[in-house]
Structure formats: structure tokens, C-alpha cells
Write a structure and sequence with these properties.
The chain has 196 residues and is α/β, with parallel strands linked by helices. 40% of the residues lie in helices and 17% in strands. The chain has 7 helices and 5 strands. The chain has a 5-stranded parallel β-sheet with strand order 3-2-1-4-5.
Length: 196
């Protein structure tokens, strides 16, 4: 409840807008997500942000994968509504505006996450082990994460990345943004960004 209250009070962070701009730019240059392309978002966190941005760009089928369910539906809806007037600013191609508005309308009209999943061809999967063994070989055209890999222990990072390669189709693309600051600084302005 505290995280929901905090995020609703603060609204859509500028950092999320920047993440959207970077991801859209990357998708335009590096990936050809045709309708029905499959996407895996690793570590979807509170609001499935990367999956939402990708869905604005292409009519994809997405698996949202995490090790814990910490979704915040009210925050998801707020961020989607605050994103709506910024579609041009984030670099969304004009040809995708109509489709993107329909996606955001799905979120606006939904009462819970499962309605969004059904309408947008999303599947939500939680696996506390984080092994990804239950996901299909060469099952994804695009794999994305944001602020996730810095949490993977050094002793398993090599096997974790090998597992991601197993999941990717030939000629697919992956994008992983890594936040190198201490995450406590996101919540406490007095905390140093490089404490650890």
C-alpha cells in the first residue's frame, strides 16, 4: 500500500519516459517486431513498463516473467494515463498512434490486470526460482529487462545469460538496461546513489 501511495502521489517518473524513448528508438533501429511476434519481459516489477511500451509499438504476444508478484494495478493505470499525452514526445511513430491509443484504452477500461492480459495477449508468470526452465526453447523474438540484471548474483550470471540465449530465436534481439545506482536512493533522497 505504501508503494502504491508513493507512486500515485509522485506520478509517472521522468525516468520512465526516458526508458520509453530509449526502447522505442532501439526497436525502430534493431528489431522488426511483426504482428504476433513474441516478447519476454524478465522482471516486470510493479507496472510492466517495457511490455507496455513494446505493445504500443507492435501487436506482440508477451510473457511477463518475475520471481515475485509485486504488481501495482492502480499505478499501472496511472502511468498509462499519464503516458497518453506524451506519445509524440517519446518518439512513437505516427503510424502507430491509433493502435497505441487503443492499447491505452484497454488499460484505462480494465478493472484488474487479468483483463489487460486477455486483451493484449499477455501471459503473467511468477517463478520464485527464477530458473526460466519452464519457458520454451527459441520461443521469443525479443527479450527485455530493465533494472533487473544488477540483482542477479555474480555466481549465476553466466548461466542466467545462457538461459536467456536458449529462449531467443535466431536473429532475435535482447535489450537489458542496468541501473548502477543503489536502489535505496530511489526511495530516500538522503541516500547516496553509490552507497554499495
Amino acid at each position: 500500500r505504501l508503494e502504491t501511495w508513493r507512486r500515485i502521489r509522485e506520478g509517472l517518473p521522468d525516468g520512465y519516459i526516458n526508458r520509453a524513448r530509449i526502447l522505442i528508438s532501439l526497436l525502430e533501429r534493431q528489431s522488426d517486431l511483426t504482428p504476433g511476434a513474441t516478447v519476454l519481459e524478465v522482471g516486470t516489477g510493479y507496472v510492466h513498463w517495457e511490455s507496455l511500451i513494446i505493445r504500443l509499438m507492435a501487436d506482440t504476444e508477451t510473457t511477463l516473467y518475475d520471481i515475485v508478484d509485486d504488481r501495482l494495478f492502480e499505478v499501472f493505470k496511472l502511468y498509462a494515463s499519464e503516458l497518453k499525452p506524451q506519445l509524440e514526445f517519446i518518439g512513437l511513430p505516427a503510424a502507430r498512434t491509433e493502435a497505441a491509443l487503443k492499447v491505452l484504452k484497454v488499460v484505462e477500461d480494465a478493472s484488474y490486470f487479468e483483463e489487460v492480459y486477455s486483451e493484449l495477449s499477455w501471459t503473467y508468470a511468477v517463478d520464485e526460482s527464477g530458473s526460466m526452465k519452464n519457458l520454451p526453447d527459441a520461443g521469443f523474438d525479443f527479450v527485455v529487462s530493465s533494472d533487473v540484471l544488477e540483482h542477479v548474483d555474480r555466481s549465476i550470471i553466466e548461466s542466467f545469460l545462457s538461459e536467456m540465449y536458449r529462449l531467443m530465436r535466431p536473429d532475435s534481439c535482447a535489450f537489458h538496461a542496468i541501473d548502477l545506482c543503489d536502489h535505496l536512493s530511489n526511495f530516500d533522497p538522503k541516500a547516496p546513489t553509490k552507497f554499495y
